[in-house]
Design brief:
Strand order of the largest sheet of chain A: 3-2-4-5-7-6-12
Number of strands of chain A: 14
Distance between the termini of chain B: 25 Å
Number of helices of chain B: 9
Number of strands of chain B: 9
Order of helices and strands of chain A: EHEHEHEHEHEHEEEEHEEHEHEHH
Helix content of chain B: 25-40%
Largest sheet of chain A: 7 strands, mixed
Radius of gyration of chain A: 19 Å
Distance between the termini of chain A: 25 Å
Strand content of chain A: 15-25%
Oligomer: heterodimer
Structural class of chain B: alpha/beta
Order of helices and strands of chain B: HEHEHHHEHEEEHEHEEH
Helix content of chain A: 25-40%
Shape of chain A: globular
Largest sheet of chain B: 5 strands, parallel
């Protein structure tokens, strides 16, 4: 089991903001849910409460950035693009404002159901000119996402993990790089965010079954270095499996498919994730199992790709972490 | 072709250089230019010139503290949208002068008033008359719906209702930086139908942003027709007050009332001047087109000839030889 880190964003944001006076902390009534309540209490002059009014908040942030500050917007990811999409485009993306959009509870990491689950945000942001997209998959990435995002000359969409987060990596996010977690030669597995941990759970069982897996973890989804990905695809015999905490349209599955098609790569591709469906409310392990986003689904996807049966059962996979859905801190788990 | 063009610099609130035009003269000039343009192009945003001429004239000729323009009097062609590769990208804000701490900033929130705003820039010597001939021409930066690269514009406001929020954020940032310049918004009453306008007022009040000023052209018209027939917005002043702003009603065609209104105490709150205006002011014959005034396109050559004759007479000019 990996080391668990409690509330890595809370400390990382505070440290980054204190080192950079132009950083302003914006919140939309989800201050404790986005782990900035301590920051609010300690540094009230750097904290702006904009209430449950996201449309105004996006344009306000655009104007604030025009005055030279760099707003970090904190709310659930889903609330930062569905309702205020026009404002996000006109006030932030088009003029390349240095607004850092910190989207918490990506994909099915919330029991809040459809209204709370950002399941197509990557698809939307990938199609927006001027937008950079980062996604965190472990505590180290959460600890470094503020600095990484703030290094970009333009707006940045971030998928941020909160609460108790596993530490999988020793090094932080370097924008534009991809992590090579294993260098096998049979199948390429591409993951990002919380699905990387799932792929790691299947690693030993797949090795035991004799499959040589090359595993890439993506924290930078845009801009994207297609050349690097093509090199990795060229290094495996059979094909590629993608697994994402997002719909399979427009996210990393599409990213890989487009890269392969553009380059005329004739290998097989299996895209795992939410299959053209909304999700409902429930615990993260339940939702990942139900919608096929977990290690078991990955093994099945690799079997589909290779046409082989590995005989791997749930008992062969590394134990899944079960977070408490309800805790004292988050009575609603929201 | 960069023509030499004399720029008249407005040196400060109420302290115009000698020989500067009066607000009334500028307003008349705006109407004449928009009329001429509409006649030549078989239509245009005539009613907006009628309702807003005094407001924009007052802002530019008198009230706003602006520096000398930083961009050429004859606008450059469209030079690409913002992107990491477009290193020379600039907005049209330079027509309002530099973004220095002591100067005011202005957003034209209803970008559909662009034609009227461009005419204003010409009348106050911030843009060459040639600029208006580029209006809505392919490859021009003088766009029909003001873009952020269009003369006098700094942000995109074509999706109505976002201008006041942007100004609120900018004003907060400028306050935090200790800048004395105010942040102004020219608004339209149609924007009151957008919930975001109310979000912006409540945020400005909550954060005590009193360097935020707006003047709203309350002409009661929108694309479909009279606002009352589309979506009534009720008692505007009472609503603004309830959301935490300070509203002041004025006659939209009496600059003296603007001058008084802007002195209204509004400590800790945004000041919103409600300019009760007529969409026919100065061109009474436009009443024949009520209630479709948003964009007047002549229905026949006959109508064009009649409007040309009647409006020219109202504005004291010769009919346009289009």
């Amino acid at each position: 089991m990996p080391e668990m880190v409690n509330r890595p964003y809370e400390r990382a944001f505070e440290a980054h903001a204190l080192a950079h006076p132009e950083v302003m902390c914006l919140s939309a009534d989800l201050t404790s849910s986005c782990e900035i309540d301590r920051f609010r209490d300690r540094h009230p002059d750097r904290f702006l409460s904009l209430g449950m009014a996201e449309q105004n908040m996006m344009s306000f942030a655009g104007g604030l950035a025009l005055s030279g500050f760099r707003p970090f917007i904190h709310t659930f990811g889903v609330f930062m693009y569905r309702r205020p999409y026009d404002q996000l485009v006109a006030s932030i993306a088009y003029p390349r404002r240095k607004v850092r959009l910190m989207g918490f509870l990506p994909g099915v990491t919330t029991p809040g159901g459809m209204t709370h689950q950002a399941i197509e945000d990557i698809s939307v942001m990938r199609s927006l000119p001027n937008m950079t997209i980062l996604e965190t998959g472990d505590a180290t990435e959460v600890e470094t996402i503020c600095a990484a995002a703030d290094s970009i000359d333009g707006p940045v969409w971030c998928r941020v993990l909160r609460g108790s987060v596993p530490r999988l990596f020793k090094t932080g996010i370097t924008v534009g790089e991809m992590r090579v977690l294993s260098e096998g030669s049979d199948v390429l597995v591409v993951t990002s965010g919380i699905t990387t941990e799932e792929a790691l759970r299947a690693r030993a069982a797949l090795a035991e079954a004799g499959l040589s897996v090359r595993h890439l973890h993506l924290h930078t989804l845009k801009p994207f270095d297609a050349g690097q990905l093509l090199d990795h695809i060229g290094s495996v015999r059979q094909g590629v499996v993608t697994l994402e905490n997002h719909v399979t349209e427009g996210g990393i599955g599409s990213l890989v498919a487009e890269t392969m098609a553009d380059a005329g790569v004739g290998k097989k591709l299996v895209r795992l994730g939410l299959q053209d469906t909304y999700a409902h409310g429930g615990s993260r392990p339940y939702l990942m199992r139900y919608y096929g986003l977990d290690a078991t689904a990955l093994v099945a996807g690799i079997e589909r790709l290779t046409g082989e049966r590995f005989g791997i059962t749930d008992a062969d996979l590394a134990e899944a972490r079960v977070d408490a859905v309800h805790s004292l801190e988050k009575a609603e788990a929201l | 072709m960069n023509k030499v063009f004399a720029i008249r610099v407005v040196t400060g609130r109420g302290s115009l250089m000698q020989n500067a035009k009066s607000v009334e003269d500028v307003a008349l000039g705006i109407r004449r230019r928009v009329f001429e343009h509409a006649m030549r192009n078989n239509g245009g945003y005539l009613s907006q010139a009628c309702s807003a001429a005094e407001q924009l004239a007052w802002l530019y000729a008198e009230e706003l503290q602006l520096g000398a323009p930083t961009l050429p009097a004859v606008p450059k062609p469209f030079a690409g949208v913002p992107s990491p590769e477009n290193h020379d990208y600039v907005t049209g804000a330079g027509y309002n002068g530099p973004a220095s701490p002591e100067y005011d900033r202005l957003f034209i929130a209803p970008a559909h008033y662009a034609l009227v705003a461009y005419a204003t820039l010409i009348e106050v010597g911030r843009m060459a008359p040639e600029g208006l001939e580029m209006f809505n021409k392919d490859g021009s930066s003088v766009e029909m719906i003001g873009a952020e690269h269009s003369p006098g514009m700094e942000v995109h406001n074509g999706t109505l209702g976002i201008g006041l929020s942007t100004a609120t954020g900018l004003a907060w940032g400028r306050l935090r930086r200790g800048e004395i310049g105010r942040t102004w918004v020219f608004m339209s009453d149609g924007e009151l139908q957008e919930g975001q306008t109310w979000e912006a007022i409540q945020a400005a009040a909550y954060h005590k942003i009193d360097t935020l000023y707006a003047i709203m052209d309350v002409n009661r018209q929108q694309c479909d027709g009279a606002m009352g027939s589309v979506m009534d917005v009720g008692d505007i002043a009472a609503k603004i007050e309830a959301f935490g702003g300070v509203p002041v009603w004025v006659d939209g065609h009496k600059p003296d009332e603007f001058r008084d209104a802007v002195q209204t105490p509004h400590k800790g709150k945004p000041l919103i001047i409600l300019a009760n205006s007529s969409p026919f002011r100065g061109m009474p014959t436009l009443q024949l087109r009520f209630p479709r005034l948003h964009y007047v396109r002549f229905k026949s050559e006959d109508e064009r000839v009649r409007m040309n004759r009647d409006i020219a007479r109202s504005l004291g000019v010769e009919p346009v030889a289009y």
